[in-house]
UniProtKB/TrEMBL annotation, chains A, B:
Record keywords, A-Z: Antiviral defense, Endonuclease, Hydrolase, Magnesium, Metal-binding, Nuclease
Descriptive protein name: CRISPR-associated endoribonuclease Cas2
Species this chain originates from: Sporomusa silvacetica DSM 10669
Subunit description: Homodimer, forms a heterotetramer with a Cas1 homodimer.
GO MF, one example: hydrolase activity
Lineage: Bacteria, Bacillati, Bacillota, Negativicutes, Selenomonadales
Cofactors required: Mg(2+)
Amino acid sequence: MLVLITYDVNVTTESGKSRLRKVAKQCVNCGQRVQNSVFECLLDPTQFAQLKHRLEGIVDPKTDSLRYYFLGSNWKKRIEHFGAKSTYDPEDVLMI
Amino acid sequence: MLVLITYDVNVTTESGKSRLRKVAKQCVNCGQRVQNSVFECLLDPTQFAQLKHRLEGIVDPKTDSLRYYFLGSNWKKRIEHFGAKSTYDPEDVLMI
């Protein structure tokens, strides 16, 4: 399933900047960055549960926000893009 | 239908900052800001087409990015939130 993950981390403090880097790193490991704080991740339920657990262990729930959007398996019909950074297909085979 | 709109606007220039303000203003008029650059908008197809037209007239497609995610009518099952800013129901009646 495709899970869209968006986040807002309060970066007015040094610890906030550190949390932001950690959240981004976790997401980079699990999916495709499509915008600064927006990732599309193809995950099975177990992988999602693990990522969610890690992310929620990093953020400060009083000041930071995480949102998950479940786009299912029919996600290709649910996404439109305009502008910079061309779209990609996370199910495509990587050609080297 | 619920349309999730996310954007990245290049704000390294004054004109970029102006575009960002204009994009945010259009989105605020049409939906609920759930994160800094993430809006959830309950729109019919005509309203969506109009908003899309306005947004794409504002951004610079060479440097800025807009993404639309169509969460359909069954969107409540597709969203999870963690942390700051409590969730809300855009279909709720506003009580004053």
